[in-house]
């Protein structure tokens, strides 16, 4: 089971792993906490962003081979740090949810599915989005309630990422609000990563998953992350996005695994 905050998060962080496990015959379940209704997008008359993003989520899940998709139904807390003020957030914002209550809802699905593995985020929520931090808290507690043995924290190896961004900054003018230095404390340092999963064989599905979230490729005054990623030539895309990283906290530093179900030591 893969637990994400919003539709499109699965495409960015875990799509290759999901496609790989589905191809291997595993039952893959995707759960999102919110419909992502406070994201940026250019919507047509009468269109609701949350409804549109859930439709895109189902399309993405089908492309990845998911057997089941669930939304816990919490409100999107928004993009600002800590979700902005309480007045700005919806009444049922995920960041304001009772952790135990949300964990029990997720645990019920884990138990129903008899899930052997749950993928969540690292404690910082990757780049610090409040809903991503809440996914970590809720997911960690849900796994304990359900007795799910394997908990993987989806992350990014920040060391090569920072080097790549600094190099890209020589050729590409990033938006004014984009500060490469913020990534020096985001995601996970190389030495803490326990799983480096080679998903190059599944980058076609991963790219299609990203493309399914078309509403998130537009909106705002600058290029969106998805739009930029989808402009990467396919040969380079396969190389850049061909690895997905995870941290399993019950394994020692120095563990180097290549598959979610690998045991340590091998």
From TrEMBL:
GO molecular function list: hydrolase activity, acting on carbon-nitrogen (but not peptide) bonds, in linear amides
GO BP terms: glycoside metabolic process
Keyword Zinc among UniProt keywords: yes
Family annotation (SUPFAM superfamilies): LmbE-like
Domain of life: Bacteria
InterPro entries membership: GlcNAc_PI_deacetylase-related (IPR003737), LmbE-like_dom_sf (IPR024078)
Residues spanning the signal sequence: none
Keywords: Zinc
Protein name (Swiss-Prot/TrEMBL): N-acetylglucosaminyl deacetylase, LmbE family
